[in-house]
Amino acid sequence: MTTRQFDIIVIGSGPGGEGAAGQLASAGLSIAVIEEHPEVGGGCLHWGTIPSKTMRHEIQLLYDYRRHPIFQKSARSLRVDYARLLAAAEQVAAAQVSTKYKDYADKNIEVIHGRARFIDPHKIEVQQAESQESLQADKFIIATGSRPYQPDSLDFSHPRILDSDKVLQMGYSPSSIIIYGAGVIGCEYASIFANLGTDVTLINTRDRLLGYLDDEISDALSYTLRKRGCRIQHNETFQSVSVDDNSVTLTCESTQQTRADVLLWANGRTGNTDNMGLEEIGITVNHRGQIEINKAYQTNVEHIYAVGDVVGAPGLASASFDQGRFVASCIANGACGWQLIKDIPTGIYTTPEISCVGRTQKELTEQKIPYGVGRAHFENIARAQITGHPTGMLKLLFNCQTLEILGIHCFGEQASEIVHIGQAIMSQPAPGNNLHYFAETTFNYPTMAEAYRVAAIDGLQRINANY
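^ that's the sequence the OP posted. Answer follows.
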């Protein structure tokens, strides 16, 4: 069998692999991207971010239509089933796949479909449907992503037991659902199903939702989910599940039992490293299937790198893409002239959205930093009143002495877009990062962006009554 040679082989075509391959191709290197599945894009495009966010958008439109005073009467009889929502998500994925293939072709990046396995530190075999191919490279970047964690005690072959991949194959709208795990995925699907009219029970293993968020934002999420009919049970731990032809019953260690049509297990993820021959060539993989790396994203084998979800946190598509570009720049130039940003914006696509960057009030208190708070409540923002999305707020945390912005926390419609305005200013060196920028900048009216001016003036008035 002939072995083909490349400068770099990238295993996986999700955001991490895509970012790496594109950057390396710009440096004139010969690149091959190996993708196990029939289409490029990885789990982000086909089973995670894009399908769930497309469904969320479609359901949000339906929810808004039903409660709009002009359309309420005609909307009462409007029903959209889950299968139709999935079809809309597939259309978006297909468009993205087409764009990505064109980009690979334009950059002369060869895409090879099949499953990669290391034969030695410089060679892989790619198992295809009816054949296999041998490839060799000077360096490798592993970007194989992750999949939902499945405990052995649950039978995921049963149609009533789902994970975040399998839920996208469900061909009907359940009347009730138990979601075990209240992390980002669990909270997002709780919002989706609650807005669809499904009876939702969200089981949280901790004492509050998304505890790493600012407390005020976490509390707002809990309140909004409950207001939309979602039952939240905190500090519960899974004990067992029983299933019959009509329902599934989850029993917690507290003896609390919950019954529903289906169970969505949304508690943890596992790196996609099975049967890749990694351990045989000396690469360390932890108990969750995640590859251990150093600060340069190198594995134990220095010419093999790993990026994205397969290395663990933060588990964000945006971060994975930047990690891929960072590693590619280091490989192409021998050293990287830029660093990955410290403060990565978090986007959580619940309804309403949540997005934040920087530190929380709790962290600033623990660090003994004198801080102030400025808030803009969306119910007072004209654009939010126009669009019918008055729930939410923008919260700015700043140093009382220097007025440096230390944290931005947003809960509301388009929060994941709004946060980037503040992120751009917060990333500037002094004196550019200053609360006065927002207080003294003219924003279009009416826009959601003017919430920054409202919040900045509110913060300044709290520390200076004469402002």
